[in-house]
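Checklist before submission:
- one chain only
- standard amino acids only
- sequence pasted in full

Submission:
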Amino acid sequence: MARPDKAAAVAEVADKFRESNAAVLTEYRGLTVKQLKELRRSLGGNATYAVVKNTLTQIAAKDAGVEGFDADLKGPSAIAFVTGDPVESAKALRDFAKANPALVIKGGVLDGRALTAAEITKLADLESREVLLAKAAGAMKAKISQAAYAFTAKPAQVARVIDALRQKQEAAA
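Returned file contents:
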C-alpha cells in the first residue's frame, strides 16, 4: 500500500467508519448504475452508499477499530455508512433488496458491535425512533393518569358518601 492514492482511499474509508454510527456491508453484483442511483436516493440523508475495494476496506476498518467485516469482504462490495437513524437506513436497504434481489445484505456494524444479515433485518423490522419515543411517552402518560385517578378516587368516594348522608338527613328532617 505504498501508493498515495490507496493511502488516501484507506484514510477516507476509515474516516467514514469513524463518523458513522453504523455501517452495512452489501453485495451489489447484478445491479445497474440506475438501480445503484435509486438505492442511494432511497437512503436519503441518513446514509451514504459507497462501492469499496475489499482489501482497502479491510485495512480501513482495522484503522478505525471496526471488527466483523473480514469474513464478508468477498466479491463486489459496497458499504452504507449510516450517520442518521440506523433503523431507517436498514429499512431502506431491506425494502430495496426485496424489490431488487441482486442486492445482498452481508452484515454490518452498529455502535462498534458486529451484526449479521439477520440482525440487520430485525433492526429494519423495528419502528422508527420517533414512533418508539411516542409510544414510551404515551405509556408514561397513561401511568401518570392511572396514578392521578388512584389518588383522587378515595377522596371523591368519601365526598359522595358524605353528600349522600347529608341528603338523607335533610330528607328525614
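Reviewer check: The chain has two domains: 4-126, 128-173.
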